[in-house]
Amino acid sequence: MPETSPDDAPPGTAALAFPTDFLWGASTSAYQIEGATNEDGRGPSVWDTFCRMTGRVNHGHTGDIACDHYHRYGDDVRLMKDLGIGAYRFSLAWPRVLPRGRGVANQAGLDFYDRLIDTLLEAGIEPWATLFHWDLPQALDDLGGWTNRDSAGWFADYATIAARRFGDRVKHWATFNEFSVFTLFGYAFGWAPPSISDKAAHLKTIHHVNLAHGDATAVLRAHVPGAAIGAIHSVQPCRPSSDAPEDIAATALFNEHWNLCFPDAQILGTYPPQIGASIEPYVRAGDMARICQPMDWFGLNHYAPMYAKADPGMLWGFVFGALPENLPRTGVGWPIDPSAFEQTLKELTSRYRLPIYVTENGYGSQTQPAPNERAELDDQGRVAYLAGSIEAMHRALRDGAKVRGYFVWSLLDNFEWGAGYGDRFGIVFVDYATQERIPKASARWYAALIKSQKAPPNRPKR
Ligand code: FCB
Q1: Confidence of residue 461 (pLDDT cuts 50, 70, 90)
Q2: Dihedral of the CA atoms 384, 390, 396, 400 (nearest 10)?
């Protein structure tokens, strides 16, 4: 790869030259942006329920309106086109497609995604669909949700409907978003729906979600001609927050849970050692072959290294630990260490040997109280974070990491789960009172980067 710098590269990336077919995208998810939770036949999800539980989401915020993307998707696609974004990663809301999770599909819900996909294609933007970004239909949770082994079949049926309906136009599919995060937070820590903290429930969930991934992959393969199928994992180096032996041991188990037990099962066909021993009672003959399907790409969501410590009061004896004092932090307190990104890309390349798409990476800031919100428009902290990440990704690529694309999290400020609307990750500001969208400095910076990488002279195709 030549080290010649593109003429109009934005500050911080002047020396970078990515391959001309490197994909530059933006990510969102259904519950975080769509709103219209009670419209056109959508059924309730576990997040609708959770948001209504007192004290679970900051300020009692809900996804009821969010960014009103359900009605404003046309504007949002135009915005992406203006920024030069080449691919858009979004998720389908299972409860919009199947209001009760199973049974008869909701035509109005399917129609919405048809409109979105067609609008993207007309704008020259590649649609990348994720089947599950945490909004499990409440009716399925009432049947035990992921703790019920039947969940793999429910998910495969939903995947079949989606593949048949959209597979003529959508070729890039991901089964799940961040397996480890929603399972750990929902079934072990109890911090997200369904707010459970139980070892058997958590282990069953891990295994059933893996089965669901495998079955859905087979469905997509069968129904989508030319499909490029991946799964999206949160992978962050796990470091002990002290040298104490108990913190080191707790971190090893934390790492198995956070980073290994989903991709290892799905790509290598095995569980990591400690989880493997405890999950055995739930694994039946033939399961590992069902889970381990050929995959086309690895979706990496990366934000920051994580620090863990022992805590005997927690379900698995580990919890998040203190961060080193000397690491800079984002506006939501996450450590900034681009070398962790470079390390992760290299390690994933050698462990799983799949092309990697960075399906999320971004910077959170807090702009509460409201009068300070517009300060967010000149988001130099986010610009610096993105530049640092993209440089780290470039170093990894230069050293042989198989990274093929990058999606910024997120296109828009949106509903940030338990943090509500106070945490903003968008490169585009959303004024929630008026739903006005205003590109931040980071959006202009990203657009300039993309432009600078488009077919500059002497750039090889990979
Ligand atoms: C990831 C989630 C995404 C968003 C970002 C900040 O863990 O996949 O929905 O919340 O974090």
Answers
A1: low
A2: -170
Q: Atom 4 of ligand 1 has which residue's CA nearest to it? A: 416
Q: Cite the beta strand spans of 311-389 per DSSP E.
A: 318-320, 356-360, 365-366
Q: Is 62 in the pocket of ligand 1 (CB under 6 A)?
A: no
- Residue 333: pLDDT over 80: yes
Map residue 352 onto helix, strand or coil.
helix
Q: What is the mean pLDDT of residues 111-123?
A: 99
Q: What is the pLDDT of residues 11-51, one digit of tens each?
A: 667 668 999 999 999 999 999 999 999 999 999 999 999 99
Whole-number Å distance between alpha carbons of 309 and 200: 22
Evaluate: CB of 425 within 6 angstroms of ligand 1.
yes
Our answer on whether the CB atom of 177 is closer than 6 Å to any ligand 1 atom is yes
At CA 377, angle to CA 31 and CA 455, rounded to 5?
80
Q: 256 an active-site residue?
A: no
Measured in Å, how far apart are the chain's first and last C-alpha atoms?
9
**Dist. CA 281 → ligand 1 center (Å):** 31
The whole-model pTM stands at 0.96
Q: Using alpha carbons, list the distances in angstroms from residue 17 to 3, 108, 416.
A: 6, 44, 33
Nearest to 416 by CA among 50, 2, 63, 20: 63
What is the Cα–Cα distance from 260 to 249, expressed in whole angstroms?
Answer: 16
β-pairing, 23-27 with 403-409? Answer: parallel
Q: 29: Cβ below 6 Å to ligand 1?
A: yes
**Which pLDDT score is estimated for 454?**
84
Task: Name the DSSP class of 370.
Answer: G
Task: Give 167 Cα–ligand 1 centroid separation in angstroms.
Answer: 26
CA-based angle 138:143:146, to the nearest 5? 80
Q: Are 365 and 331 in contact (CB under 8 A)?
A: yes
What is the Cβ-side half-sphere exposure of residue 27, based on CA atoms within 13 angstroms? Answer: 25
Residue 177 CA, closest ligand 1 atom number = 8
